[in-house]
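Q: Okay, next protein. This is MFS transporter from Rossellomorea vietnamensis. I've checked the sequence twice, so it should be correct. Can you predict the 3D structure?
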Amino acid sequence: MKNQSWLSLQFFAIFFTWGIFIPYWTAWLVESKDFSISAASTVIAVGMIARSFSSFFVFPKLSQTVSLGRLSRWIVLVSGVALLMFLPMDSFGMVLGCMVLFSLVYPMLLPMVESMAAVMMKEDGIDYGRSRSWGSIGYTTALLAVGFLTSIFTEGAVIYLLFGGIVVILLSSLTKLPQSMSGTRGQEKLSYGRLLKSRKFVWAMVIVVLSQGAHASYYNYGVLYLKELDVSAVYIGVILNVAVLSEILFFAFSDRLLKGKSISLMFIIAAGAAVTRWTLLFLFPSTPVFIFTQLFHSLTFGLTHYAFMRLIYEELESKDIPAAQGVYTSLGMGLSTAVLTFIGGFLYDISPSMAFMGMAIVVAPCVVLGGWMYWKYDRGVEGVFSYK
C-alpha cells in the first residue's frame, strides 16, 4: 500500500503540471507573448520535436545508468530552471530557443513516471489503474485552478502556476523511494532491436502514433476554440475537466473492466471513438457538442493509453520498458503530435472546426489496423490474459 501511495503521489504531481502546460501553453504564447496562431503553433511543434528526441534517445540512456527515483529529481530541478528562462524573453527566436531547452527536459517526466508504474506492476504488484487515476485527478485540479486564476489574472498567470507545480513535483520526489525505484534497469546495452522483435509492439506503435497524435488540435487549440465559441475563462476550465473526469472514472475501474479483454479490441473501440469525437466537433461547432465529446476522452486517450501499457507489460521484459516508454512518448506523444500541430494550425487558420476534421481523417486507419491485429493475434483467444 505504501508503494501504491508513493506512485499515486508522483502521478498526481506530474500530471498537475501537465494539466497547465498542455491546454494553456499555446494560449499563453498568443496572449502573453503576443504571438500569432501560426507562430505559437511553430513554437509548440518545435518543442514537441525536441521532446521526441529526448524521450527517444536521452531518457532511455539515462535510465540505464541512473535510478528512476534519482533521475526524477534531476529532471524536475532542471525543468524549473529552464521554465524561468521564458520570463524575460519576448522575441520569437529567443522564446523558440527556450522552448527547445525546456522540451528537452520537462517532458521526460512522462515516460519516467510511466516506466516507474510498469516496473512497479512487475516487481511490487501495484494496481496501475488506481495510481494512474490520481494523475487524472492532478490534471483536473490544474484545469480548475488555471481556469479560475486566468479569469482574474489573464493567461499571464499560467507560467507562475506551472513553476509552482514543478516545485510540488520536486518536493514529492524527495520522499523515501520504493526499493524498486532505487536501482538501475541494468547495464546491458540499450537495444531497440529487442522491441522490434515483438510484431504486436510494432503494430501497436503505429496505432498509438496516429491515435495519440490526433489529439494535437484538441490539446493545442481547444482553449482557443472554446474562446471562439464565447466561453468565459472560468467555464473553459470546467468544460475541459469533463474529459479528465471521464478519464479518472475509466482508470479507476480499468483493471477490473478490461481484465481478459484483448488489446486489439481495445484499439478498435478507441479508434472508433476518436473518429466519432473529432467528426462531431467538425460538424457541430457548439459548446454543448464540445461538452458531450469530452466524455469520449476516456476512450480516445484513456483506452488507447491503457491498451499500450497492457501490451508492454505482457510483451516486454523489465529492462526493455524504459526504451519502450521512450519510443511511445517520443513518437506517440511527441513527433506525431508535432507534425499534426503544424497541420492543425494550418487548418485552424482556415476554420477552427477544420482542425478537428483533419484529426478524424488521421485516426480513421487505426480502426482497420486494430481489426487486423485482432484477426492476426487475438482471434479465438478472447479472454486470455497472459501474466508474463
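A: Here is a summary of the prediction. Residues 2-32 form the longest helix (31 residues). The chain has 17 helices and no strands.
Q: Noted. On to the next one.
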